[in-house]
Amino acid sequence: MAYTIGEVAQLSGVTVRALRHYDEIGLLKPSFISPSGYRMYEGADLERLQQILFFKEFGFPLSEIQRILDNPDFDRAQALESQRTLLLKEIERLERMLQTLDRTLDALKGGGSMSAKEMFDGFDMSEIEAHIKEYADEARARWGKAAVDPVIDRTSQYPVDRWAGIQRDWDAIFRTLADAMEQGPDHPDVQASVANLRKLISDHFYDCTLEIFRGLGDLYVHDKRFTARIDAYRPGLATFLRQAIHIYCDRFESAQD
Question: How confident is the model at residue 48 (pLDDT cuts 50, 70, 90)?
């Protein structure tokens, strides 16, 4: 079944003007033009439009979306899985923010007060704390209680503003890596971002030795939870990052010999 541009606009909520722009830049071209001159879209076009809207929702620029969708290695099912994970995290965050807002209103109306942690629940800190709790037992089993517990004790004392800064730096590194995937894992810009990632881990969590860093690269691929989080930035980023980390560690070890 084919749809006119007006019908696609009505189905998707995307304006006719925007659809025309997508056609002009090559992001979403109609399957064919009708004898009357109308742009006509088929099922595959609607699937592509859905992906465009998902990526836009996550803050990707149109040029980056086009590059992702035109990549021969693009896997729609994998992308949807990563997007689903990210949306679930966002839903959880928004639900916590709503609960925080309700508690704040109750405190104001009742003349009560809220702790600093309660005031910021749902912004950034609670998600990071949940992440730490989720992996704490697993990390102890993997690296030992003596290595993990001091990290958990130290990070549990971090104030909200420090967590927010860590999250901003983490996000910036992964977005930079996602943007640089076409350059290859050994490109100087990619290797600089990998070095920044190692420094971020060492500065805020633990001494990220080359052995640990290499193991983290493997973990990002072998543990589907990590893979989903990283690939939410761009499909295939976890595998790319593992390659880049291994190159970084190999070069660093060679320089030390």
Answer: very high
Distance of CA 57 to the CA centre of its chain: 12
Of 232, 236, 185, 184, whose CA–CA distance to 74 is shortest? 236
Residue in the block written with tokens 């290859």: 184
Q: Which two tokens stand for residue 212?
A: 């640990």
pLDDT band at residue 249, thresholds of 50, 70 and 90? Answer: very high
Residues in the chain: 257
pTM, rounded to two decimals: 0.50
Q: Are 34 and 44 in contact (CB under 8 A)?
A: no
What is the reported pLDDT for 30?
95
Q: Which single residue is written with the structure tokens 């659809």?
A: 19
Residue 176: pLDDT band by 50, 70, 90 thresholds? Answer: very high
The sign one gets for the Cα dihedral 175, 157, 135, 196 is positive
pLDDT of residue 4: 94
How many helices (DSSP H) and strands (DSSP E) are in the chain? 13, 3
For residues 2 and 46, the answer to whether their CB atoms sit within 8 Å is: no
Q: Is 173 exposed, middle or buried (0-12, 13-18, 19+ CB in 10 A)?
A: buried
| C-alpha dihedral sign at 234, 240, 244, 245 | positive
33 phi/psi in degrees, rounded to 5: -105, 130
* Of 98 and 236, more confident: 236
Measured between alpha carbons, how far is 214 from 77 in angstroms, rounded to an integer?
Answer: 28
Cβ contacts of 204 within 8 Å, gap of 6 or more: 155, 158, 162, 166
Helix, strand, coil: what percent of the chain each, to 5?
75, 5, 25
